[in-house]
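Researcher: Structure for this, please.
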Amino acid sequence: MLILAQSLTSCAIKPYVVDQTAAVLSTQSHAPEDDLSLAREASAFYLKFSESVLREAPQHPQLAETVAAGFTQYAYAFVAFEADKLEAQDAKAAQKMRLRAARLYARARMHAMNALELASPGFAKTLALADSTHPLRLNASQVGLAYWAAASWGGMISLSKDDPDQVADLPQVVRLAHLAWQTNPDFGDGALASLMGTLEAARPDGSRQQAAMFFDQAMKVSRAQSAGPWVARAESLALLDQDKEAFERLLRQALEISAKHKNLQNEVMRERAEWLLDMMDDLF
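Model: Predicted structure, token format:
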């Protein structure tokens, strides 16, 4: 890996080697891992290396999806969440971490959107038009790219609520997620439906009933093996409704799921659920 990393700085690297490396890296996001500390320590090099390969092979959509997913998950689990936990002790340091998380989200969005643009020139411009006379379509292989583009974009906006230009992009995020949902509503074992619920709840004119339906779908599709939809519903609906009983019930269900089905995503959700439960007196 180190030799390949050094080689990528040279123009002499052969396209075949780049393509083979890209193919290997694009499968690594599926490797099982439930140790958060180990994942954190390994992620920085892995992300930088994968990004370097992607620059040499921008036409590799699977690697673009893996890189976008990696930056989004790193920003959420290891930067934005740490900022939330730090807020009470050091608000200034927490804000710096949020700015870093926003930059990482922006990086993830860039890689995913670049891949979508390469596949469909004019994609970003058409997405911004919101014009029914210029319809967009995704094929099944592009759903992952659209999901991670929308998730990272939404994360960036959530950390930039004081920036009107960023917040103004929320309708594009919703349209992009909806395009993915129309193509494959069960993507990510409910992750996409959960994102739809979060975005619906976040929209100024969003429907709480529709958001609840998306979360119901996410929970059903996940087959109670992913804690994410339960945590997302607790934060997006129960907390905003100040429904303390539902909030606690959802988070405790998330803890049960993460204990039964150990993986990196569930470990992240377990930590967040425990932190939210500890914060209940401040949140309600």
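Researcher: Any notable elements?
Model: The mean pLDDT is 88. The chain has two domains: 13-26+36-184, 185-284.
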